[in-house]
Amino acid sequence: QVQLVESGGGLVQAGGSLRLSCAASGLTFSHFGWAWFRQAPGKEREFVASISRSDLSRYYADSVKGRFTISGDNTRNTVYLEMNSLKTEDTAVYYCAAQYSTSRLTSPAGMNYWGKGTLVTVSS
Question: Which of 14, 57, 96, 123 has the greatest number of C-beta atoms within 10 Å?
Fold first, then answer.
């Protein structure tokens, strides 16, 4: 049974930092591309960052480029999202997702597995 479990969310002031983790089990970590998405209240789920299975290339939404960093640790079966210089508009539930694909991952569609999310709240 595949499980993706996010952690690390919480309340932080604007300008602060958080590191999200996504621990995966029940699958072969290196066979998947990995992504983070987020969903703010009343908004659609949107792409944040991804790391490809094929060449470990990283992709970021323009809104987080230069502030967020995605990384993966095959030995721990864990994906991370380091978030710096947080803004109030980063407030959302953050979801980890995996796709059995070598493609560039930027869309929620087609993701094979999802975590249940972790809430990030950035206060002004």
Answer: 96
Q: Cα(92)–Cα(108) distance, rounded to whole angstroms?
A: 16
State the pLDDT confidence band at 71, using cuts at 50, 70 and 90. very high
pLDDT band at 56 (very low <50, low <70, confident <90, very high): confident
Task: Compute the distance between CA of residue 48 and CA of residue 120 in angstroms, rounded to an integer.
Answer: 13
pLDDT digits (tens, 9 = 90+) for 31-50: 999 999 999 999 999 999 99
Q: Are 113 and 26 in contact (CB under 8 A)?
A: no
Q: Are strands 10-13 and 118-123 parallel, antiparallel or unpaired?
A: parallel
CB distance 96 to 116 below 8 Å: no
Buried b (16+ CB within 10 A) or exposed e, 14-47: eeeebebbbbbeebebeebbbbbbbeeeeeebeb
Q: 33 and 102 in contact (C-beta within 8 Å)?
A: yes
